[in-house]
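Quick one: structure tokens for this chain, please?
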Amino acid sequence: MLSATGIHVTIERKHLLRGVDLEVRPGEVVAVLGENGAGKSTLIRALAGDITPRGGVVNMNGRPLDHWRLRDRARVRAVMPQDHAVAFGFTALETVAFGRYPHAEGLPGATDHDIARAALRRMDALHLQDRLVTTLSGGERARVMLAKTLAQVWEPVPNAARYLLLDEPTASLDPAHQHSVLGAVRAFVVGQDVGVCAALHDLNLAAQYADRIMLLKGGYMLASGTPVEVLTTMRLSKCFGVDAIVMPHPRHTAPLVVITG
């Protein structure tokens, strides 16, 4: 399990997270929702070990995160940041293969490139493998970077659960690819020793694809639980300042949120 306990993050005297607790268990998807500036990206970075909390502790598979060697950490935890701009002229296949470096002895080999192609295929992006990443649209590049994240934790690691930390992975995608990408991530998790924590903005995507949802407001955890428990009219009003109708989804066992004002 990947867990954050009492996480408090302060940058330049601004409190970004205030005593946040979160657990990500293998085999489940946890969505983090909140308005802009609520602390979603900060929480992802703290879980990844990219920033050190002022208070609290992050544990991964029973050990404090800062006790892990960087390479060992990279073999079981992959991160897709919100900003995934690429300034160098690598192909999509080369870019995804970079995710294999924690596992490779030297340069990625034939097996690593096979895994990179499989990850691209899962993201409906194999046809882009020979394209330079700098020539791709924002949505195409997002799918390639998500494939790179999957490739990094593609195969099981002995005695260690694996984790994906995704910061707004659907932000650049059209509606069809939003669903296909989250469906592919969900399929990757089910039946495997992999847990996912994703910062999202779309309430209905979170309701449909997440097992649990956390609401953040001003760095505080406002609510945590199943989509049905968390996505209520009252909580959405408190978190986002919107009027919403929450009803059963006509096709899925999930709530459907309609923002009315």
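Residues 2-259 form a domain with the Rossmann fold fold (CATH 3.40.50.300).
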